Request: fold
Amino acid sequence: MSVRSPWITKTAIHHVDEPFKLESGRVLPELHISYEIYGRMNKNRTNIILVCHALTGDAHLAGYYDGARKPGWWDVIVGPNKTLDTQQYCIICSNVLGGCAGTTGPASINPESGREYAATFPVITIGDMVRAQHLLLRHLQVSQLCAVIGGSMGGMQALDWAVRYPDMVSKLILLATTARSTPQQIAFHAIGRRAIQGDSRWNKGEYYGKERPDRGLSVARMIGHITYLSDHAMEEKFGREVKNKEQEPYALNADFQVESYLDYQGNQFCERFDPNSYLYITKAVDLFDLTKNGCLVEGLAPITARTLAVGISSDWLYPPQQVREIVKALRMSGTDAEYAEITSRYGHDAFLLEMGQLDYLISGFLSPKLVSDIMLQPVSSIKEDDTIEKACQVMVENTASHLPVLNKSGKISGIVTSWDIAKAVAYNFKTLDEIITRNVRTISPDDTIQEAALRMKKHDISALVVSRDEKLLGIVTSEGVSGSMRVNC
Amino acid sequence: MSVRSPWITKTAIHHVDEPFKLESGRVLPELHISYEIYGRMNKNRTNIILVCHALTGDAHLAGYYDGARKPGWWDVIVGPNKTLDTQQYCIICSNVLGGCAGTTGPASINPESGREYAATFPVITIGDMVRAQHLLLRHLQVSQLCAVIGGSMGGMQALDWAVRYPDMVSKLILLATTARSTPQQIAFHAIGRRAIQGDSRWNKGEYYGKERPDRGLSVARMIGHITYLSDHAMEEKFGREVKNKEQEPYALNADFQVESYLDYQGNQFCERFDPNSYLYITKAVDLFDLTKNGCLVEGLAPITARTLAVGISSDWLYPPQQVREIVKALRMSGTDAEYAEITSRYGHDAFLLEMGQLDYLISGFLSPKLVSDIMLQPVSSIKEDDTIEKACQVMVENTASHLPVLNKSGKISGIVTSWDIAKAVAYNFKTLDEIITRNVRTISPDDTIQEAALRMKKHDISALVVSRDEKLLGIVTSEGVSGSMRVNC
Reply:
């Protein structure tokens, strides 16, 4: 047990004893879904975050398995008082379908044959992985997700979640991912598959209980590993150092440090990963394409979740541009999406490493910090030539105490409050014009909640109109500000 | 024979019947060097260009082998009236040491054992390749190279040429290359080697006459191929098209176009390349490092050749930055080096494809177009307080008819010509000051030769001082300008 963290976590398994129909049309007779849960669900189950893992990741997000030396893969941001604070949120992560960490995959026993599926396992998709996770959440009686978060292949699942189950996903956080695998990404995977299938020990997938095609898997992993690191990160990590300085440099098998490192990574990987799973999961990633009729805007249109998409400056596997395209497509559908970039020299792997920037971006997105996070919208409004009576009707119908007044070009020309109505009655004013407050206090949606609070206090008012370029966007009230101190997905 | 080009080329072989000592200290008992020559050597052998080929290239630069359908690999710029005009230049390209196209390599018979070298072949370096080429040139009685040109691994050889034999290389053209293999570049090669050596048919290199480790070689080639293309080029070429639109998309072996393409490339490559050569040549590239004591400026200091180094905007294997570093290092040693960039979306392979930009850059560099190309230097000068007698001595000693006059801070303050001397004599002037022309006509080394000709004509003078920031750099004469119309490396 590590001294650093005594936090022990365990894996649970959910057994679905029903046929599971895949996107391909093929059917798995049963499903096992293994998962881990960190933190506790609150009474109304409104504090749940789903984390989707990447290609070679697993459900073991954080903490330590009993006796383990290494913590889970996202321990830097998941845990008590960390970015994904397990004292506040309940975090769920399940092993993907097709994998080899407890959820049904090619190494599982096919109940119909009593033997491993091996290469008879059906091709699966990212959508199938998501649908299996959905079954798990139903079993856990979770109907609303505060947020779905994922990086790399995890980001693909998260994106698919928000398209497939828009009503369940309040917020979506995507890291270093794409909405559609590109030929270069496919090519790297294809070569990994060729290396595995070209290993004579692969034996058409029938190697269970025999020697495994570890040489092929190791080559596949080495290829993957290069794509996860930036050129610069490798330079910094290895330079041109040789493994053993006493060795003869002019030998074919004399290794530079970078070679020994890749060999080590390749061998380590063979100890924990099933070669057939590598074939199936990379294929699922290659098949991933959320465009619809060739159009990403159309494909992502079902998404309603507020979205934060994060690119990594030095990522050349899923370059920032591909992350930006997701944001552009969402915005074209009117979905609230923002792009942020992690400045890092680590390459793709930065989403596992850049703790500080991850914390800043994810915390800021999950906890409302800006006026746009708490403003009420749509907001009722009235026109300059409306009557006082009309204003009162709108107020009552919408239980709104503050009504922005718009001029003929739709711009904010004033505000009328229930208190103004009272004034009109008191002084027997007959027209709206006599009671409108022309000096409207506005705030930008990009301002902080602190700024909104200060401005209300300064002018001794209980609400601010949220506007940009004199256009009405919403309203923010003192109730909203004080309420924002609570967790609020 | 192709209809497109009836230009038939042939390979010759030079046999060196002497031991060849390698950088490792090991010795090859004999050498065969195969090569091709395009165009004719002129009388003084001053029109010779050496082209160095890349990793999987060969000596067959251009034209067609009898009966072949495809021309040589650089046919776009090598040939009659092309960029490297074979009517003007004599172009030599030899197959690299360690390769499998006629020059001694692991598939050659070791005269000492009577069998293929296979894995007993010694590790070779880029420097060894260059030294073998040097033996060939000596055999061909070539002592001066108008230019050495190479892209990728060819660029490494070219750079090594200019360091190793500075007196032989007048101009150096480097394309998409580096002065030092980086860990990322090494890693890609290392994985290719693992794939070959991990193929059970590799049999520790002893596969000649048996089944070859083509699966491994094919994987290695596929990895290489991805690194030669940009993400964008792959997107444009393949998109997410599948190979056979009628095929079941949810099959593990259902291929995207990009996969079939890579398979095809992998298989094609196996027909023409020896797996052991791939091991040795990639190792030579990995060992390439021209820094000296960790310093590139020091490593490249011997170079005297005027250098053009060309990066490719979308090349991520040998990114522009690495090409720029060569230029920076050369300039720090005072070597005349310039950087240019090919704007291309093809990635690394652009140096084989971007005919127009290659032509513009290479032609412009080989044919003198600028004042700096034809200016005379070092140029003799005198000081303001020198005597007329002293000026005459300097003129006579240096057969110079124009002498720039420098003030105490070394800046040009005037010019004295032989005609001024005549004037002094005629009018009995006693001091230099009385005959100096203060209004010196100067020109920048970056100006064109046309500009120099125009300026001389305008002022009716026969020479211009070449200067930058009032510092004397050289002198350009009307003879130089008219002579620049000739081929002049």
About this structure: Confidence is low (pLDDT under 50) at residues 1-6, 485-489 of chain A. Residues 183-198 of chain A form the longest helix (16 residues). Chain A touches chain B through 60 residues (CB under 8 Å).
